[in-house]
């Protein structure tokens, strides 16, 4: 018996007013996979994540999460069922401590009756020892890399089955990018599926199982990451010479 993919997007079109930002996008994330969507600024990556999360309406297509079709604007159900977004802005509460930001990540689980946030926080601190060291610090005073760690850590507090990451490398030094990506790659071992949206195609393809290249709202190329890394067009447009 085959199990349904964690996420399946079929023929998705999304418009802002009269302007269509996504044209017939289809993609899949299987259990235990890291799937990346790479593409330049304005390609529609954030729009794609917003539609998947059930925040934006779609003009056409279907989104199935854990084998169930998503109706329009279902963000609350998506969150309750373990889909968690780490937005590009990181959207932290700067005037609150690291620890309180983390606790907010468990809000929905708490509402659903789970009382395991302290144990989950201990696991998050195992993954990000830097956050444990700084648990009483105000989030607004963290460095860029630490903020990204906190954003991912807060998402993990929801014990996600599918983590949607919007450009986690944005604005970070290469060493920190490597650290964040190593942690994302490790998450796979704990059974979390990841949809990783990135402009940093090199780093993303290194950890992903499968990739999609999004250009002006359309999937231009897709395939296993190792194939994409060898694809002349991907090399020329996204991997450069370095
Ligand atoms: P970036 O990497 O720069 O964040 P992106 O690939 O995430 O880009 P989107 O932010 O999804 O791209 O934008 C896709 C297109 O939709 C762009 O042309 C953008 O201007 C447009 N767009 C995004 N949000 C809105 C909005 N709220 N209203 C109108 N147009 C929008």
TrEMBL record:
Protein name, UniProt field? Amino acid/amide ABC transporter ATP-binding protein 2 (HAAT family)
Domain of life according to the entry:
Bacteria
- What organism, scientifically named, is this protein from? Sulfurisoma sediminicola
Report any one BP term from Gene Ontology: L-amino acid transport
Q: Could you confirm whether the keyword Glycoprotein appears in this record?
A: no
Q: Does the keyword Cell membrane apply?
A: yes
The record's keywords, sorted A to Z, are: Amino-acid transport, ATP-binding, Cell membrane, Membrane, Nucleotide-binding, Transport
Q: Where is the ABC transporter domain?
A: 7-241
**What's this protein's family per the entry?**
Belongs to the ABC transporter superfamily.
Q: Name one GO molecular function term.
A: ATP binding
């Amino acid at each position: 018996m085959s199990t349904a993919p964690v996420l399946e997007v079929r023929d998705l079109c999304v418009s802002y007013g009269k302007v269509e930002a996504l044209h017939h996008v289809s993609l899949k994330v299987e259990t235990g996979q890291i799937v990346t969507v790479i593409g330049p600024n304005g390609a529609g990556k954030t729009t794609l994540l917003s539609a998947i999360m059930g925040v934006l309406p779609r003009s056409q297509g279907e989104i199935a999460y854990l084998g169930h079709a998503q109706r329009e604007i279902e963000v609350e159900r998506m969150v309750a069922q373990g889909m968690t977004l780490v937005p590009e802005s990181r959207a932290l509460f700067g005037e609150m401590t690291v620890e309180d930001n983390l606790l907010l990540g468990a809000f929905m689980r708490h509402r659903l009756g789970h009382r395991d946030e302290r144990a989950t926080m201990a696991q998050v601190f195992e993954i990000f020892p830097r956050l444990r060291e700084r648990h009483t610090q105000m989030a607004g005073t963290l460095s860029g890399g630490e903020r990204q760690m906190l954003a991912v850590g807060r998402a993990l507090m929801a014990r996600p089955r599918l983590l949607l990451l919007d450009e986690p490398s944005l604005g970070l030094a290469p060493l920190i990018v490597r650290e964040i990506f190593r942690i994302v790659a490790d998450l796979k071992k704990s059974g979390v599926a990841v949809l990783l949206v990135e402009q940093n195609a090199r780093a993303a393809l290194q950890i992903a199982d499968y990739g999609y290249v999004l250009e002006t709202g359309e999937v231009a190329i897709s395939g296993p990451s190792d194939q994409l890394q060898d694809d002349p067009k991907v090399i020329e447009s996204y991997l450069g010479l370095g």
